[in-house]
TrEMBL record:
<comment type="subunit">
    <text>Homodimer.</text>
</comment>
<dbReference type="InterPro" id="IPR016185">
    <property type="entry name" value="PreATP-grasp_dom_sf"/>
</dbReference>
<dbReference type="InterPro" id="IPR011054">
    <property type="entry name" value="Rudment_hybrid_motif"/>
</dbReference>
<dbReference type="Pfam" id="PF02222">
    <property type="entry name" value="ATP-grasp"/>
</dbReference>
<feature type="binding site">
    <location>
        <position position="206"/>
    </location>
    <ligand>
        <name>ATP</name>
    </ligand>
</feature>
<feature type="binding site">
    <location>
        <position position="100"/>
    </location>
    <ligand>
        <name>ATP</name>
    </ligand>
</feature>
<feature type="binding site">
    <location>
        <position position="183"/>
    </location>
    <ligand>
        <name>ATP</name>
    </ligand>
</feature>
<comment type="function">
    <text>Catalyzes the ATP-dependent conversion of 5-aminoimidazole ribonucleotide (AIR) and HCO(3)(-) to N5-carboxyaminoimidazole ribonucleotide (N5-CAIR).</text>
</comment>
<dbReference type="GO" id="GO:0034028">
    <property type="term" value="F:5-(carboxyamino)imidazole ribonucleotide synthase activity"/>
</dbReference>
<keyword id="KW-0547">Nucleotide-binding</keyword>
<dbReference type="InterPro" id="IPR011761">
    <property type="entry name" value="ATP-grasp"/>
</dbReference>
<comment type="function">
    <text>Catalyzes the ATP-dependent conversion of 5-aminoimidazole ribonucleotide (AIR) and HCO(3)- to N5-carboxyaminoimidazole ribonucleotide (N5-CAIR).</text>
</comment>
<dbReference type="Pfam" id="PF17769">
    <property type="entry name" value="PurK_C"/>
</dbReference>
<dbReference type="GO" id="GO:0004638">
    <property type="term" value="F:phosphoribosylaminoimidazole carboxylase activity"/>
</dbReference>
<feature type="domain" description="ATP-grasp">
    <location>
        <begin position="104"/>
        <end position="290"/>
    </location>
</feature>
<comment type="similarity">
    <text>Belongs to the PurK/PurT family.</text>
</comment>
<feature type="binding site">
    <location>
        <begin position="175"/>
        <end position="178"/>
    </location>
    <ligand>
        <name>ATP</name>
    </ligand>
</feature>
Length: 350
């Protein structure tokens, strides 16, 4: 049997490991923590720093393919990995997707629509960016942000100092605030042979910067913009010679789909595919990185709703299970801190 190496041991790694096990693969996690949600299902776990070239090389040598659930890994570390084994998706995808400025430039060069943006590396830069973009804007750190962390909203020019301090005075991007009615994601998989499949694009609702629900199929506004968004996503994947699941987030605006960000991995807005699609994003990710044919991405029910269980939401798990339409997923996290993703529930509406 072959072994899949996964960088990162959170819930995404856990769900990749479940899919891998079903297909007869073993998994080996490499993560900076002692343990995590993936430890319950992955037989092997190595604790190590993502910057430790020697440890990464040994890890790559010990597995058949390396993938990741966490994209914020130093590109030089990924280059190290790539010298010792097969890394899918590759270093180029990671380089682009872990840097907001790089990913927006990349997508603009391919003809995609984004919010107006400007690089910000100082308070002077921020004040100049507000002059051109306007003060209805969001300042985001270029790297490491997730679940709305590392970003702050501005509404007037006087907010510059506070915003610059709020994100910790680090390399950032100022984005004009996009007016949109709905948000959606394109979740796609590209095989080692370049074959591409898309799942239905869910409508995503965020609360306090964190994904709350994903519903498929989406309504007419999103459906009318999906083809254009998919075409862009395919261009991105082809340009990066991408292998695996790739997710792009969009705003459905009056001007069409506005690209927000991409994730070079399985994505929270695709968790509904475990029960709601013929083949889940996790299984197709494993199939793709292992060079296997891709599975059918069609819907398994007329309507599917995924809801994240964040912090204390998880206390309702018993009630959730009492409705037979619900599928409960708990990530095995012990402490229900506010804002922490503890699990999710997928509901098939027949
Ligand atoms: P994720 O957990 O999805 O990785 P993140 O921390 O990377 O989140 P973003 O996706 O950039 O953050 O932003 C979170 C949410 O904030 C978006 O889904 C959207 O609702 C809102 N948002 C972000 N950028 C803009 C913008 N330029 N205009 C309007 N709303 C925005
Ligand atoms: Mg993000
Ligand atoms: Mg996002």
């Amino acid at each position: 049997g072959s072994t899949i190496g996964i960088l990162g041991g959170g819930q995404l790694g856990r769900m990749i490991a479940v899919a891998a096990a079903q297909l007869g693969y073993r998994t080996h996690i490499f993560a900076p923590e002692d343990s995590g949600p993936a430890a319950d299902v992955s037989p092997n776990w190595t604790r190590g720093a993502y910057a430790d070239a020697a440890a990464l090389s040994a890890f790559a040598d010990s597995v058949d393919v390396v993938t990741y659930e966490f994209e914020n890994i130093d590109p030089s570390a990924v280059d190290t990995l790539a010298r010792h084994g097969l890394v899918r998706p590759g270093a180029q995808a990671l380089r682009v997707a872990q840097d907001r400025l790089a990913e927006k430039r990349f997508v603009c060069d391919l003809g995609g629509l984004t919010a107006p943006f400007a690089p910000v590396d100082s308070l002077d830069d921020l004040e100049a960016a507000i002059e051109t973009i306007g003060s209805r804007a969001i300042l985001k750190t270029n790297r490491m942000g997730y679940d709305g962390k590392g970003q702050t909203r501005l509404s007037e020019p006087g907010d510059a100092v506070g915003a610059w301090n709020a994100i910790g005075r680090q390399s950032a991007i100022l984005e004009g605030f996009v007016t949109f009615a709905e948000e959606f994601s394109v979740i796609m998989v590209r095989g080692a042979d370049g074959a591409v499949r898309f799942w239905d694009s869910p409508a995503n609702v965020h609360v306090d910067g964190i994904l709350s629900t994903s519903t498929a199929p989406a309504g007419p506004l999103i459906e009318g913009q999906v083809d254009q968004a998919r075409a862009l996503a395919k261009q991105v994947a082809d340009a990066l010679d991408y292998v695996g699941v790739l997710t792009l987030e969009f705003f459905a605006s009056a001007d069409g789909p506005v690209f927000n960000e991409m994730a070079p991995r399985v994505h929270n807005s695709g968790h509904w595919t475990i029960e709601g699609a013929v083949t889940s994003q996790f299984e197709n990710h494993v199939r793709a990185i292992c060079g296997l044919p891709l599975g059918d991405t069609g819907l398994a029910a007329p309507r599917i709703e995924m809801r994240n269980l964040i912090g204390d939401d998880v206390a309702a798990w018993g009630e959730i299970l009492s409705d037979p339409a619900n599928h409960l997923h708990l990530y095995g996290k012990h402490e229900a801190r506010p804002g922490r993703k503890m699990g999710h529930v997928t509901r098939l509406v027949l």
